[in-house]
């Protein structure tokens, strides 16, 4: 696919987003796929793709706040989670268990997006917003600036996606020691093990098809594209 086709497709995407319609049917993500495979096309179209992506984001996102405000809220929530875990050390029985699990739950939710943010930033990507996409998936996410995403190496993009998933799966096992040290009831320790195993199973069954690991595989394919072929995957990528 050459630059003229990409440009024409982006024209369609701009008209779609201006009308409040999804950009997918316009071929936008197929154009992004083509751009990712050609460094010259990245330089030519990255900023334009980012503008369309930002406009499309505003049409579907449920809640979005500027990245600086989201950082304050998410980091603040993470600290509250750590305080609750620490407080559980001074409690006993059910109170200790409930406070520990509440703190752990907060940390589990907040560190996923924070990891994407930190790893992506270290790899040269920038982020514009924290957001919640829909009520059925209330976990906060971070919105990439797609121009910086496209300009990052494909392997960097891949590991940015994987980083959040990896940290989320490690958290239950990392907190096993804290739970034992806090003296919480044994069922809390076993609950952490179960949570960790369930998360791994969900990743294998779901995330490889719908979420972070799907994006990881997609971007790794761009790092070593098959001869004469496309990944066949269209999606937000960030």
Q: What is the mean predicted local confidence, pLDDT? A: 91
- Widest beta sheet: strand line-up: 1-2-3
Number of domains: 2
Q: What portion of residues belong to β-strands?
A: 5-15%
Number of helices: 9
How would the global form be characterised? elongated
| End-to-end CA span | 23 Å
- Find the count of extended strands (DSSP E, 2+ residues): 3
Class by SSE composition: mainly alpha
Rg: 20 Å
Major sheet: size, sense and barrel closure?
A: 3 strands, antiparallel
Low-confidence segments, ≥5 residues, pLDDT <50?
Answer: 227-238
Specify the helix fraction band.
Answer: over 70%
Topology as H/E string?
A: HHHEHHEEHHHH
What does the model show?
By secondary structure, the protein is mainly α. The protein has two domains: 1-60, no CATH class; 62-223, no CATH class. Helix content is 72%, strand content 6%. It is built from nine helices and three strands. A three-stranded antiparallel beta sheet has the order 1-2-3. The longest helix has 30 residues, at 93-122. It is elongated. The two termini are 23 Å apart. Mean pLDDT is 91; it is low at 227-238.
Keywords, please?
single chain; 238 residues; mainly alpha; 9 helices; 3 strands; disordered C terminus
Task: State the gist of this model.
The chain is mainly alpha-helical and 238 residues long. The protein contains nine helices and three strands. 72% of the residues lie in helices and 6% in strands.
């Amino acid at each position: 696919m050459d630059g003229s086709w990409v440009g024409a497709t982006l024209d369609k995407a701009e008209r779609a987003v201006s009308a409040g319609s999804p950009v997918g049917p316009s071929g936008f993500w197929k154009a992004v796929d083509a751009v990712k495979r050609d460094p010259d096309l990245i330089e030519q179209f990255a900023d334009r793709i980012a503008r369309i992506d930002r406009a499309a984001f505003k049409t579907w996102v449920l809640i979005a706040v500027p990245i600086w405000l989201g950082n304050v809220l998410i980091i603040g929530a993470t600290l509250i989670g750590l305080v609750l875990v620490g407080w559980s050390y001074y409690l006993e029985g059910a109170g200790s268990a409930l406070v520990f699990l509440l703190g752990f739950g907060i940390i589990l939710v907040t560190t996923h997006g924070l990891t994407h943010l930190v790893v992506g930033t270290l790899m040269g990507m920038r982020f514009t917003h924290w957001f919640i996409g829909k009520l059925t998936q209330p976990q906060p996410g971070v919105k990439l600036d797609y121009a910086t995403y496209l300009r990052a190496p494909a392997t960097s993009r891949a590991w940015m996606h994987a980083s959040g998933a990896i940290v989320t799966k490690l958290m239950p096992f990392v907190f096993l020691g804290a739970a034992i040290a806090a003296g919480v009831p044994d069922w809390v320790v076993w609950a952490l093990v179960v949570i960790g195993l369930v998360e791994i199973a969900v990743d294998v069954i779901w995330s490889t098809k719908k979420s972070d690991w799907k994006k990881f595989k997609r971007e790794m394919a761009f790092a070593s594209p098959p001869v004469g072929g496309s990944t066949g995957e269209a999606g937000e990528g960030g």
